[in-house]
Amino acid sequence: MIASSMAGKPKLFFLQAGQGHDKMEAGEVPERDAPEPLKDPFNDIEVGEVLPNEADFLLGYATVPGYVTFRSRNQGTWFICKLCEMLGKYAHREHLIEILTRVNKEVAKLDANVDGGRFKQVPSPMYTLRYKLYLKPMK
Q1: What is residue 71's DSSP assignment?
Q2: I need a labelling partner for 78 at 20 to 30 A (CA). Which of 17, 60, 72, 92 fits?
């Protein structure tokens, strides 16, 4: 059970860990038109509102279940590097889910040439946020 003082507040966790032993293979996909993005409604918490215990969580996993993660020997893990880069570039104007989508795109562009194969990685954010979350840059 969540402490009542945390109810309705976002709880963010970014997990840099593999979720298995498989290496994600690369595959080319033909380009196609993307649908228009959905707009998220902003939901205020009303006085006396009862919230689900699992509401307002964001778990940013470095990869999908079953797969390994990769890292650069010089720069560190792909997920954390791209997360920091995208937060630095976009936190002042985009909400966190938009930024995590950018992280997914950037990590998915990278290649790991291991054991004679070309392998990929894609992060896997999971969230129960009920509203858009904007991060205020520190001054």
Answers
A1: E
A2: 92
Task: Find the angle CA(68)-CA(54)-CA(64) to the nearest 5 degrees.
Answer: 15
Q: What is the separation of C-alpha 108 from the centre of its chain, rounded to a whole number of angstroms?
A: 12
Tell me: the pLDDT tens digits for 42-68? 345 555 667 788 888 899 999 999 999
Confidence of residue 139 (pLDDT cuts 50, 70, 90): low
Phi first, then psi, for residue 25 (nearest 5°) are -80, 155
Distance (Å, rounded) from C-alpha 134 to C-alpha 128? 15
- The DSSP code for 14 is E
Question: Any idea where the domains of the chain sit in the sequence?
Answer: 11-22+58-139
How far is the C-alpha of 68 from the C-alpha of 45, rounded, in Å?
Answer: 38
Q: Match domain 11-22+58-139 to its CATH number in 3.30.2320.30, 1.10.600.10, 3.30.70.1470, 3.40.50.1010.
A: 3.30.70.1470
